[in-house]
Amino acid sequence: MVQNVITTSGDPDTGTGIDFSFRVVNDNTLSNPTSTFTFTSPEDKFAPVDVVITGATRDYKDGGEANCYILQPDGDGVNIPVKHANSGMTTQISSGQLLIPELIWTDHSAGLSPNGAVSSYAIEGTGPDAILKVAPGTSKGNAVIAVKDSGTGVILWSWHIWVADYNPNTDYVTISSNWEYMDRNLGALSSTPGDHTAVGVVYQWGRKDSYPGLLAPPALTETPIYDAAGNPASIILGEVPNTPNNLVNSIENPTIFFIGASGAYADWYAYSNDNKNDQLWGLYGYITDIWKTAYDPCPAGWRVPVVSSSNSPWWGSFSWQYSSGYIGGYNDNAGYWPMTGRKSATTGAWIDMSSSSQVGFFWHAWGNGNTATGFQLSRSTSVSMDTGQTPQRATGAATRCMKIK
Questions:
Q1: Omega before 193 cis (within 30°)?
Q2: In this predicted model, what pLDDT tens digit does every residue of 94-146 receive, in sequence order?
Q3: Taking the CA atoms of the chain, what radius of gyration do you get in angstroms?
Q4: CB of 173 within 8 A of CB of 334?
Q5: What global pTM score does this model have?
Q6: Tens digit of pLDDT for each residue in 135-191?
Q7: Are 110 and 139 within 8 A, CB to CB?
Q8: Got the DSSP string for 321-387?
Q9: How far apart, in Å, do the first and last CA atoms of the chain sit?
């Protein structure tokens, strides 16, 4: 789209010696780096003028199959194989299906813009053979981009785009000389103690879809999100339907935070506990029984962590510290773990941390009976980690990815 055509010199009445400037913005249909614009006079005062614009060529790297991709601000784009949508328990995209991309939300106020976290996207091809091409903007941030059926507009799958000055292959922590964890939460824009952008995004256990975390805990204000135009967007609270399986409905509605049924279960996946699914992020709690699933929210080569005495950064005795200088716990071996809070599984509200010692929670992959398991950050005179927590599965909580061995 051309904006701001400005005549800067010359005689507009005779059409002689006219100089003008213009700006092209947010034209995501221009996948070719060379484009031609034709300027004409509605009163035929000058002949049509063709202006050829040659943009910078951006490299697009193959990202592999995953639900999350880390991009560098103003760096290379990524080619996302949409066939990943068919690697789970349902076939989401059929052969020859025409697809359209859409930015669902971003936490950068510029929306879809070269100045935002995501500057452009496009679909090449059809059906499961199609490629979703995503290019970052110049800023750090998070975004969710979906592919939709071009006719019905139904969302078929969506991906988390994590734009940060971060390379997990060089910035990680090693536990017990064997296991490598990212040095920050999934979606975090920093790992610096005291930096609120270290909080990252949150997930309901077993879902691939990310949701904005707290803006500046312990305050319970959620990080604002925006649509492609930079207008305010929002996450919707929705009750789990009384059906045997809510999986496809959740895939088609990545902006709905499903509130679990009241009681001990409170699972987004199904209304009844008889239909729970322990395999959404893996199976059981042991290394030999775990695999990365189609719904795992971590980038390629990484996965939601699993727990054993050899690979957990919270197993054994650590000297965790708490200070008003940074909100969270820090340990030389395990790095910085910020206060994150968590969202209630039955109301969708952020749980008040002002009078509670429970200030953070981090999912791992083990479905445990009626609930799921993770690590709780607790605050008193010091900070400690408790590995035995089993919150309801519709809870919204952070996670930190572990490298696949």
A1: no
A2: 999 999 999 999 999 999 999 999 999 999 999 999 999 999 999 999 999 99
A3: 24
A4: yes
A5: 0.84
A6: 999 999 999 999 999 999 999 999 999 999 999 999 998 876 677 889 999 999 999
A7: yes
A8: EEETTEEEEEETTTEEEE--B-B-TTT-PBPP-TT-SEEEEEEEEEEETTEEEEEEEEESSSEEEEE
A9: 47
